[in-house]
Automatic annotation (TrEMBL):
Xref: Pfam families: FAST_1, FAST_2, RAP
Annotated GO biological process: mitochondrial RNA processing; regulation of mitochondrial mRNA stability
Subcellular localization, as worded in the UniProt entry: Mitochondrion
Keyword Mitochondrion: yes
Keywords: Mitochondrion
Domain of life: Eukaryota
Species lineage: Eukaryota, Metazoa, Chordata, Craniata, Vertebrata
GO cellular component: mitochondrial matrix; ribonucleoprotein granule
Protein name: FAST kinase domains 1
UniProt domain RAP: residue ranges: 725-785
Chief location category: mitochondrion
Amino acid sequence: MFRLRAVCPFSWRVFHSRPIGCEPLIIQMNKCTDEEQIFDFIERNKAILSEQQVGCAFNMLWKLQKQKTSLVKNVEYVRDHPQFLTLHNLAMNKYKLMNDDTLVNVLYITQQFVGEDFDPLVEALVTESWRRLERFDIKLLSEFSSCLAEQHLYFSPLMGKIADIVHRNLETTQDLSSLSVLMVNISSLISQHFQEQLVNKTELLFDTMDSSEVDFAKRIVQFLRNVRYRYQPLLERCNNVFLSNVDHLDLDSISKILSLHKFLQFNSFKFIMVAKKKLTEMIPLLNHPASFVKLFVALGPIAGPEEKKQLKSTMLLMAEELTGEQALAVLGALENMESRNSHLIKRVASVLYKHLDNYKPLELLKITQALTFLHFQSKEFFVKLGELLLSYLKISFIPTEMSFLVCAISMLPSPHLDEVGISRIEAVLPQCDLNKLTSFSASVLRWIQYDQLHLDSNTGKQLKLLQKLDHYSHQRLQHINSFDLLWKELKSLKGDVFSESLIEEMIAAFQRFRDEINYINVAEIAYFISKTNYLSTLLLDRLASVAVQQIEKIHPFTIFAIILPFSVLNYDPPQRDEFLETCMQHLKSYLGMFDPLMLVFLGFSLATLEYFPEDLLKAIFNIKFLARLDSQLEVLPSSLSTRVQFRFMELNRSVCLECPEFQIPWFHDRFCQQYNKDFECALDKRKKPLPYGSHNITLGQRPEMPWESNTEIVGSRLPPGAERIALEFLDSKAFCRNIPHIKGKSAMKKRHLEILGYRVIQISQFEWNSMALSTKDARMDYLRERIFGEVKS
């Protein structure tokens, strides 16, 4: 008994004294102001440090790093210090004693110091965390998932386990900040249904977040980018967060947001303008290559002429200092800017050439695409690039990587693929999804076209490869047994890369699952169908039906995408008027919130369908809107700016001709006044040609009344009984892909020429190139019949 009494007080003294002993050591560490002091502390106390104090030491080292700018961080110095190894070994011995928070925190910090190199401590911490995974709360689970993401373990069983835990606990989750981290990290593993659940949960919790917290909004947009889901309601809400906090956004944040918006094709004129202003103010403040490159990449594509000139001149001065990674980023920006500054392009290319051996296949593809687009010419550069691509292809076995390499090779000035390369492609075809199969097909088609131009004899082998690609693509489509899987494979593809037979198979698959088209996916599917140029009345009728029945659940900003296939393919669904009026009423109160270019495209699409809502026209044709449109045109790439201007002119012309009662003026004299016609003539009442003079017609403007109903048809009058004839030859692009049904733009042009007084004769290439018109005499007889009404007996 006495012995027990003697031991017990001692034991209790030891137990109670431990926290007291810990506290002074942690306080000492917290007083350290640099790494050397911490390392001295570790050396003096390594024999007595507890797992809690080891965690504190890691915290202090990382805290000091975070306080430094990127230019003075000394991660390598810390990692290579002998006492960091001591701390590392202490953690290795004590990690099982650490509490959950300390365990994950030490894992995160260790990863920051050791980088991507294999580290036994990281491995041990991950394994121990896996063992404790089920008891982690959502915040700790999100932090651990980020550690796995840093190791690129997106497809690992462990990340799958985390996704399962999130799924099971989603209903009770209330922490959107942590959930948004998890959404980004598990996005590669989730089903379509789980994706929708996460989006719905995000919408429910969105207003619980502090609107000044920008990071959670960035993560939500990143998640949508990862799953390739352009979900307008969430994008709009996140964009409002960005706009309300724009004064606090730094260069990195603005760059990230612009990049995400571009990928998702989300247009926010307001954000672009405030970002442009803020980034422009940074130009004189940044003189280090690392920071200036970020600015160049973010601001370049949206800058005005003066800012672009300033950016390029500064970049020219520091081009030789660029790293390989920075040079690649600048090249991408020059491509987005559609630059023709050959001096700067050559400077950047010389840096790329020095680092060419260090680039990965995807980076080599980006280099090839950009230099081709920028019309860069250098035999030496492309020869080395080609050799490098072929050498990678011969050792690569990953389908995605091989598709990048093959695509890049096909874009070279003299593309060549030997039998070894062809056999490499054939070997991976069974593993490829539709994305990779269509990428290979597009590349092979480019080779065939090049070889045919240069009379190369390898075309036969390439045609056989093309047939195999088509076969595997058909197989892939035929084996898809769910709409989610079909849409996952198709939504990232361009609709014009499919062969005729494959597009029929794809449309047939859509038709099988048409009942699964709903308010969530209707806009994306409509946009995809518009790119295929394939007229399926069954699918278009379903799209119109969903829009009418579920309009209240559809975001107004997606209405344009829903209308687009009807406009492009020139198709009126059975409930045409109800469909168009329902769509217009739904977005009526949002017209002032649309980006100018989207309003122009919407107006033009409706005009091709002969639908002219007065509210929309009033929103477009006014001085305030035109000023906004001019401002936006300044920040668009020149090709897109030209396209918007042309669509606006066509809309203006359509309204003037088809709706004169709206008194919309014609104000495009300097841009485009006269219609293009392949051939025109005038015939008198006896069907005899009249001398060509001033019988052609244009739209004109009375200069003294700039904003009244001032459109007039300019041109001389014909003699009584005479007629004007416009002859148009239509190629395959004027028709739907599957049937000889004329598309929207060509139908509208015919309509307008008829309003202007022409008898329009449209001749399709199918007729003109048919066997019946294979001789000159047959063609002349055909033209006489169409123009003069003569039938040869």
